[in-house]
Amino acid sequence: MDKEIAELSERAREDAKAYPKKRFVFAQIARYLPQRIFIALVGPRGAGKTIILKQILLETKNCIYISLDTQKPENGIFSFAKQAEEEGVKLLLLDEVHAYPGFEMEIKKISDFLKINVAFTSSSSISLHDSSYDLSRRIRPVYVPPFSLREFIYFEKNESIPPLSFEGLLSETAAKEYYGNTIHSEALFERYLQFRNYPFALGKTDLPPIFRNMLETIINRDIILTGRATPQEAMDMRRLMAFIANSPVENMSYTTIAKNLNITRYKAEKYCELFEKAFVLKRVRPKGTNVLQEPKILLALPYRLLYKNYRDCIGAVREDFFTDSMKFLGFGINYLKSERGRKTPDYVIDDAVIEVGGIGKSPSQFKGYPAKKRIILTHPGKIDALCRPLYMAGMLEKSTM
C-alpha cells in the first residue's frame, strides 16, 4: 500500500478525535456500513461530509481514507482498492470523489470484481446525475444537508430537542404542546437564517466572505472544470445568481431571467439546473398536470444574503428556509398559482396547503384549492387554529413521519 496514503489516513483518523459530536444523518449512515452497499454521501460544500468520513474511519476497523482532491492513487482507484483488499482492508473511504476523472468506472469495477466496501463523498451531484455508467444500482445515496434549525441548536447550544412530526405541525393541539416546550428556540431562528446553517460557521463571525468563496469554488471547480459550462457561461451564471437574489420570488422564471440577462431561455434553464445539482438553488414545480408551467426558483440558504440585506429580503429568505427544510426531508412539494396565474407563497405538501408569511397574513390565497388542512407559517410565531410558528419547519424529522 502507498506509504503516504497510509500515513495521511492515520492523520485523518486523529483529526476525527476533535469532532466528538455527530451529524444527525450519521446514524443512518452507520446502519448501512455493515451491508454490501456502496454509500455516496452527497451534499453541498461545507455540510461536513469530510468530517463524517473521518468519524467513520475512527470508529471502523480495517478501514482506509483517501482525499482525492489532494491524493491520486498511482495506478488508479481500482488497483489501490484491490491491493487494500489483499492487505485486509474491508472499507475504503474516498473523499471528494468527483475530483478524480473517471471515478464512475473505477467504482463500477470495484463493485463488479472486489468484495471491499466503499463510502465516498461528492460536493456535487452533477457527476452522479450525468454518469454514463449505471451507478444507481450500485450505490446508496445519502443526502448530507446543511444544519436544520434543530441540529444547529444541538451543535450551537448543546441542547437536544425532540423532533416534531409533520402531522404534529398540522395539529393545533400537538403544535401548541411543542411550542410550549421549545418556544425558547425561536430566539435563535433569525441568527440561524443569517449564515449559520452550515457546520463550518460554528464559532465564526465574518461569514459572508466564506460563502462567496464557496460559491466561486462551486462555479470554478464543480461546474467549469467538469466541463458543464464554459468560463464565459460562468460569467452569466454569476449574473444569474445576483438577478435571482435581487428579484421578487413570485416574478422569477426562465423567461424573466433570459430577458434580463440577454441569454436564451435554454441557457437560463441549464444554469438553474446546474446550480440545483450543486445545491445552490432549487426549483419547485407548480401544482397541476400542466408540465409546461415554469417552476418557482428559490435560492438555498444563505446565498440570497450575499446580495441583499436580510431585512430587505426577509420574505424571500423565509421561503428559501421553508423550501430547503421540505426538500431536505424528501417531501414532494409544489407551489400554488393564484386565479390570475401568479406565483404565491402557498405550497402543497401531502394534501396540506401551507403558506409562508409574516404574522399579519390572512388565508385569502387559500381559496379555490381543496385541501385537508390549511396553515400559515408565521414569524414572529403565532399559534391558533390557522397559524403555526415558522421556526417549527426547522424542527421536523422525516423518520418520525
What's the layout of helices and strands?
Blueprint (H helix, E strand, L loop, with lengths): L2 H13 L10 H7 L5 E5 L6 H11 L3 E5 L9 H10 L4 E5 L7 H11 L3 E6 L3 H5 L8 E5 L5 H9 L8 H5 L1 H11 L6 H5 L14 H17 L6 H16 L7 H8 L3 H13 L3 E4 L11 E4 L14 H15 L5 E4 L5 E7 L2 E7 L14 E7 L7 E3 L12
Parallel strand pairs: 1-4, 1-5, 2-3, 3-4, 10-11, 11-12
Antiparallel strand pairs: 6-7, 8-9, 9-10
Helix pairs in contact: 1-3, 4-5, 11-12, 13-14
Write up what this structure looks like.
The chain is of the alpha/beta class. The chain folds into 2 domains: 3-143, P-loop containing nucleotide triphosphate hydrolases (Rossmann fold, 3-Layer(aba) Sandwich), CATH 3.40.50; 164-400, Arc Repressor Mutant, subunit A, CATH 1.10.10.10. The protein has helices at residues 3-15, 26-32, 49-59, 77-86, 103-113, 126-130, 149-157, 166-170, 172-182, 189-193, 208-224, 231-246, 254-261, 265-277, 314-328, and strands spanning 38-42, 63-67, 91-95, 117-122, 139-143, 281-284, 296-299, 334-337, 343-349, 352-358, 373-379, 387-389. A 5-stranded parallel β-sheet has the order 2-3-4-1-5, with helices on both faces. A hairpin with a 2-residue loop joins strand 9 (343-349) and strand 10.
